[in-house]
Amino acid sequence: MAPDELAALHALAFENTLRPWTANEFFVLLAQPATVFAALDGGFAIGRIAGPEAELLSIAVHPEARRRGLGRRLVAAFEAEAAARGAEEAFLEVAATNTAAWALYVRAGYTETHRRRGYYARPGAVPIDAIVLHKRLSPAPPAAKDSI
Ligand SMILES: CC(C)(COP(=O)(O)OP(=O)(O)OC[C@H]1O[C@@H](n2cnc3c(N)ncnc32)[C@H](O)[C@@H]1OP(=O)(O)O)[C@@H](O)C(=O)NCCC(=O)NCCS
User: Does the annotation mark 110 as catalytic?
Assistant: First the structure.
């Protein structure tokens, strides 16, 4: 997907809830070596890695393509790519009012670490809390066997 297509999909997916990212912002982000990007027909996920940590920055699915498993596949693709590049854990933040995305992440195995109160503040609107979610990407070591 080209930067202008990503910007158009981002604007459509987030409607009035978020300032749309411009094509140039996507262009700059995609050019950075730390960026992790996954795309499927109708959606994309984008994030970055820093050492053993990955951060999912945005995920968007076209309104007409939702509830068909695309979001789940994009999260999985993002995680697979991040893990392949050395990430051991993933973080993301979601608006407390975004029940669809929050449910998607919980279903994908993310758990809440903490809440950032009033994180999403816009002029003339009530600030919304951000929920920070975490998931360990590396497989857990095999359970230790009882010694005899
Ligand atoms: C959040 C988003 C990416 C989900 O994409 P999707 O393709 O519809 O998600 P999936 O079909 O893979 O859903 C996977 C699971 O997430 C949960 N889920 C997804 N949408 C949901 C909704 N509207 N309400 C409740 N749970 C929802 C469900 O548990 C779902 O599993 P199920 O369909 O078997 O019940 C999509 O709604 C979107 O683009 N929203 C706008 C952008 C956005 O808010 N991005 C996240 C910013 S943090």
Answer: no
Kindly give the confidence (pLDDT) of every residue in the chain, 148 residues in length, as a single tens digit, with 9 standing for 90 and above: 899 999 999 999 998 777 899 999 999 999 999 999 999 999 999 999 999 999 999 999 999 999 999 999 999 999 999 999 999 999 999 999 999 999 999 999 999 999 999 999 888 889 999 999 999 996 534 556 655 5
Neighbours of 29 (CB within 10 A): 19
Q: Please tell me whether residue 76 adopts helix, strand or coil conformation.
A: helix
Strands (DSSP E) found in 3-148: 35-40, 43-50, 53-61, 89-95, 111-120, 128-136
- Give yes or no for a contact between 54 and 47, defined as CB atoms under 8 angstroms apart: yes
Q: Whose CA is nearest to atom 21 of ligand 1?
A: 100
Q: Are 108 and 75 in contact (CB under 8 A)?
A: yes
Sign for the pseudo-dihedral over CA of 78, 81, 83, 85: negative
Tokens 């195995």 correspond to: 109
Query: Would you mind telling me the total number of residues written for the chain in this entry?
Result: 148
**38 in ligand 1 pocket by Cβ < 6 Å?**
no
Q: How far is CA 44 from CA 80, 122, 139, in A?
A: 14, 25, 25
